[in-house]
Amino acid sequence: MKQFGLIALATAALGACSTSNTEVTSRDNAPYLTQAQAMARSARVSNVSYDLNFQLDGSDSFANQETVYFTLRDTNSPLTIDLNRANIQRLEINGHVLYPNYNGIYLSLNPKLLQTGDNQIKVSFTRKHSTNGEGLHRFVDPVDGRVYLYSHFEPAAAQQMFAVFDQPDIKATYKLTVRAPADWQVISATREDSINNDGDFRVWHFPVSPKLSAYNFSLHAGPYHMWQDDKSGPYPMRLFARQSVAAQVAPEEWFRYTAAGLKFFENYFGVPYPFKKYDQVLVPDFLYGAMENAGAITFAEGHFLHKAKMTAEQKQSLAGVILHEMAHQWFGDLVTMKWWNGLWLNESFASFMGTLATANATEFDYAWRSFYAKGKQSAYEKDSRVTTHPIEVPVPTTGNAFDNIDAITYSKGASVLKQLRQLLGEEVFRKGVSDYLKTYAWHNATLDDFIGSLAKAAHRDLHQWTQDWLYTAGVNTLEASYQCSNGTISSFSLVQTPAATGQTVLREQKVQVALLRKGHHELELMKTVPVIYQGANTQIPALIGERCPDLVYPNYDDWGFVKVKLDERSFATAQSQLANVSDPLLRSMLWQSLWDSVKSGALPLNDYLDTVFVNLPKEKDYTLIGQILSTLYSSKNWLEQMAPLHVDYRDKAIRALAQMSLRLTMETEGNNDLQRRWFNAYIDFARDSESLAHLQELLQGTSKLEGVTLDQDTRWRIVRQLNRYDYPGSKMLLQQEAQRDHSDTGIKAAIAATVIRPEADIKREWLARIQNESGEAYPKLRIAMANMYPAEQQLLNAATAEERLQTLSQMDKTKGPVFMRTYAPTMIPMACNNGSVDRLQQVVSDNPQLSVITMRTLMELLQEEQRCVVISEKITR
Questions:
Q1: What pLDDT does 777 receive?
Q2: How far apart are CA 41 and CA 181, in angstroms?
Q3: How far is Cα 818 from Cα 851, in angstroms, rounded to an integer?
Q4: Is the residue at 262 inside a domain?
């Protein structure tokens, strides 16, 4: 129940003004702010500053007394300020205390109490901490009972912590005071300038911050363990993590990559780091990988804490994410998008710059190969879906901000920026970016502002480029078309085809064409030619007269964003010569061409696997092995789904994958990274009784593999696999492992291993928890959803399939976008047959009212079912 002081009750009449004005009516108690409402508000409000005073005690609620200062252009209508589900105790507007006109979403401020010019609002309230990863999230460590808090505000969740104009184009300054338990650390955008004792508490005071959008501000508090490095660069660096996981952190790696990144970005941008210190905080239950809060970046523990020495891939991932978030400190925090339609540029640019910095400022000089194998492939896949969308799309409300946050937003956007840099020239691109940051520092900017800075630096019009690349969807295909006569090329052109039937956009970009021929021991590079192509057909006269090649690759070194279709001669060469390609990026691209042919139905899956069994054991490149293994995990998933078709082949093929992985685990002893990669693959491919029995023996210590040690994460991986296939004794092993590991990751691993068991009662129990308000924290439900219906458990999946489809619309309506981003892709049933295709088509037709996120997921799963059926029909054994 809301509580108000006597003065508030006595002056309640002041708040009884009409609420029929335009702004209040237009918001209509909706939980989300529209772009039109936001633009109208920012046109009236300026010079905002917040004075925040929090009382934190570790309980499930917090208190805040805040003052908001702002300048108002007019008093023609009420003004709203966002505040979510607070228990307001006192509201004061320009010295008038009154009963708040409050709907649990925003406060409506009476214009009669506002004034043209400077205004002051004071509001005191209490609120429950969030437990869904937004607002001011509270986590209780199951190991030691310690309480940790952290904030997460993107896109519009700052209102879950304080009263705020919660939109990116109302930048403000923040002055912060926090009273917290004496053993806590408190972290925010600025470094504290005083800490005073107050009994069992301490009072932290933080000076006024630079101007920030609300989603870039932050507050993190708790008994965090702290590491500090003031010597590696011009800015003090700190790293924080929970006490119980501190031993899993490698602070020297964090500080090394951070210092290298700060130096690289200051040199590249020509703009000093905008904030005076660099804090990084590892937090539990985080919704995403990391968040670029100004000067106080948060990272998901689950991504960056490991119970064994980090592999090269894990280190590269850490470096890449540190540098991605660091790029945001300039591009996102210093210069911020005006509205959420600019979120793609924010993320794309950070993905591009993060990879560029990783390749140039760390030991991972092969970072662009990793980007090609993972990020770029996810972008090609997403852009080939029926649900593809342009990079730049409208965002009507804050509730739609994350509708299009996907591989197109991150990886296609980054790829497009990469090829634009290639087209304009590296130095021209860098100058355009630097000019943009200098021009719009501490302000908001738009896509046109960014493209305008690049166009000015390049002295060329980028209007058509922008229309073709940013406002149209789909990935085009590029193929070399050539003729040879008397052993030399007599004609050569590049043929560009539109993304899909009915689409017509043909784009301009710069690529590099490579000619290769078979040598004695390797496929030899004969010639490369840079080409700017556009239109349907681009002639390449520079290649006329060259020796006829055995293989042509028209996007050598991966300059462009385009799907390559190999000509027939080149495809045959690629399939037979993979092991003879010395260039690892080209080898990676040729492997990808084979896999793309499987997905399109042109190459039977069994033929691809035959190629794998011959060539993969010879592969030594760590990144490329990871790329191929990802295709094998997809292959296993399809084969499991295809039952009862191809059962004999499925069993034989997956058993062969497990045996190959085990053999390579033993052969790579002494190379820790490769051995762990192959051993993890062995665990994941194990499904036959012999492999599962071996895993059980390894877990129990009755067998061993030289060089392999079972850290806690690996033990859980084995326990989950044994329970997935209900190997005898696996349930007891699960219980024993849960008794060994009481950590947060252990609790979640136990949930995964429990839910994945092929038991109907377990499935129904957890389905009820997921669908109903069970009180279970969302981070645990997310784990359960991801493990509920593995591909081979078709009968258990089918048992509740109709129920899940019938309740999909209601779930979508009541659970919200964060929940549905996990629920829809994991809980919509799949079966890899025509009946399932028909069923999903019917669900699409019957539910036009589904949210954008859920409808898109449903249509993509339908397309994936159709693909699985085609692949199944193409298998020739």
A1: 84
A2: 38
A3: 12
A4: no
Laid out side by side, the sheet with 537-539 consists of 537-539, 488-497, 477-485, 563-564
How far apart are alpha carbons 144 and 160 in whole angstroms?
A: 27
540: Cβ–Cβ under 8 A, 6 or more apart, which residues? 492, 493, 494, 513, 529, 531
**Token pair for 154:** 């993107």
Residue 135 burial by Cβ neighbours in a 10 Å radius (0-12, 13-18, 19+): buried
* Strand, coil or helix: 437: helix
Q: Count up the domains in the chain and report the number.
A: 3
**Nearest of 191, 393, 423 to residue 296 by alpha carbon:** 191
Say if residues 66 and 127 touch (Cβ distance below 8 Å): no
What share of the chain in percent tops pLDDT 90?
93
Domain that holds residue 514: 477-572
How distant, in Å, are the alpha carbons of 125, 513, 827 from that of 539?
69, 12, 50
DSSP labels, 77-101: S-EEEE--S-EEEEEEETTEE----
Which helix (H) or strand (E) segment holds residue 343: the answer is helix 343-361
pLDDT digits 0-9 by tens, 540-591: 999 999 999 999 999 999 999 999 999 999 999 999 999 899 999 999 999 9
- pLDDT classification of 231: cutoffs 50, 70, 90: confident
Residue 274 lies in a domain: no
Q: What is the mean pLDDT of the chain?
A: 94
Question: Environment class of residue 645 by beta-carbon count within 10 Å: exposed (0-12), middle (13-18) or buried (19+)?
Answer: middle
| Opening angle at CA 341, ends 162 and 779, nearest 5 | 55
Residue 701 inside a domain? The answer is no
CATH number at residue 135: 2.60.40.1730
